[in-house]
Amino acid sequence: MELILCSFHLNFEQYRNYCVIQSDLKREKMIRLILVAFVFVSFAFISIDKQPTVYTFKVEGIDGNTIDFSKFKGKKILIVNTASKCGYTKQYTELEELYKKYQDKLVVIGFPANNFGGQEPGTNAEIKEFCTGTYNVTFPMAAKISVKGDDMHPLYQWLTSKAKNGVLDAEIKWNFNKFLLNEKGELVAYFPSRVTPLSEEITGKL
Q: What confidence score (pLDDT) does residue 52 get?
């Protein structure tokens, strides 16, 4: 009888240990599943916010037409916030020269903005007349936008935020800041106003 009880006690202990082990395994498996789900959801949110290329953007042109960035696949893109009454306005001359010299592989796009010192007060029609009449601009010009503040244009939100473009953070501090994108629509570099369009800093990347 004692032998039977002893055997029963041993079997019960083994069964209890087995249950504990199985419970621990289930708990560990559940924790792993939760961690995997958390990582997947986090990555999904990051992917939604991050947009690695510029090609989804369409903006209004200065003539009321649409500038579709996906049309520029295979070419580098130089994006510049411009102004007609700025000390850097003369850079229009070099921007046009750069555009003509490299137009087989580069498109320049100007974005008039009145964010700094009220130096772009005109209407789209007035801005176009100034650019074509004074500097013979032929590269694409967008309609006037805001490049900073609460009303910052979505394109510039993307250009200035590493969380969105995946490359760098930037702050537009004045007119004629420049962003260079590669042939795949990915952001490559940012240049402040003082860097002129024909400088080696820019042409060396073309």
A: 79
**Which of left, alpha, beta for 153 (phi over 0: left; psi -120 to 50: alpha)?**
beta
Active site residue 19: no
Reply yes or no on whether the pLDDT at 34 is more than 60: no
Q: What is the pLDDT of residue 205?
A: 97
pLDDT digits (tens, 9 = 90+) for 117-164: 999 999 999 999 999 999 999 999 999 999 999 999 999 999 999 999
Neighbours of 167 (CB within 10 A): 17
Q: Which of 6, 19, 86, 131 is catalytic?
A: 86
